[in-house]
Amino acid sequence: MGDLGAGLIERGAELAGERQRGQGLSQRRVDPPGQPGDAVPGAGQQLADRTNPALELEGVAEAGKELEKSTEVYAAPGGFACRTTLLMSPTRWQNAFYFYYAREWVVGSEYSSGWRVSNMNLSVPKYLEASNCQANSLHHAWDDRKSLPELESLNEELVARLAGVSQRAVLAFASGSAEWLVYRFERLTDTTDAWDFIQTAWAMTVHPRYCVGFEFWSYETEKGWEGPVRRPIRMALEFLDAAFYLLTSEYHTDPTSMTASISALTTYVMTDPAPYQRWVEDVLYRFEGLYPRDPRDPLGDVVPRQAVDPDVHFSADQAEALINQFLATLDHRSNRFLRDPAAILEPFEGEEDFKGTPYVFDIDGDRTSRRGRATGEHHHE
Prior knowledge:
Blueprint: H1 2-15, H2 60-70, E1 73-76, E2 79-82, E3 91-93, E4 96-98, H3 126-131, H4 149-152, H5 156-163, H6 167-184, H7 192-204, H8 216-219, H9 227-248, H10 256-269, H11 274-290, H12 319-328, H13 341-345, H14 363-380
Antiparallel strand pairs: 1-2, 3-4
């Protein structure tokens, strides 16, 4: 990594208000699998904005140790990649435990990354590739410790339109929106886990038991998911996970609010949100025509992934064949979020039993199951 890597670490320490920049900080280089190479001299200029430094740290040596552990700068062909915002030393200050993030270091910074998704189970649709939404620069302000105002007041028009389509259409919209967000950051970090979970989300629109368990992201460690690239990805996956959990649990909570949160977050992190917003309009217009919400059957028919592709001439009568094509591509051995077929059939307290053959979809059986569920709920009332 050489002088470039040392410069990154020095800049991070300086930005955090280190009194004696560079003391106790060592150099290191980490190459991600399949991305060896020397960093190009001069890459990553204009890294730091030192006009608003973080609070001073208490102890240069300890700060150096923590900064060394948490900064992952990768040499890559054509430049370098930094996995996360610099996570500064946890220090004792006013008897509390604090993490300091050098967030100004990354806003507006240029990244030149060698990240490429490997072993990705879910192919990127052509409409995403054509959107040019990927960028090596970040223009959104971010602080892991603070809530995002853009998520505190959701788009009421979007929420109302989502409430007018079936719940499975809402989940399809949520999964498609998460794809936009993950694809936007794909040049800047390893997105393999994110794509695998989104693939599992599409399977959960068929039946929730295809996932190994709900609230995965609520219990997954936050280590490695810090900063303005990794944390938005994790937040989107948390919202997606919660949308499925709340709908299929005993709460039977409609997924519209969680889905609107994913959409708001996706819009916020885009360098240019216009392509995503056009996609939103195209997909909602299609869903309003094909999947209007029926109060007697709010869940509705399964919505295949092709339905969120504006370039595909899609009709609802293609759903069963498309869903079975998709299920045939799934392999729990290469995606840790998917359940083993035998485990899918095992009864589990708090989860709906699976009827039929795992990874095979029968649309008539699905409709019969929904009618039986609706009848049972009516008698229960």
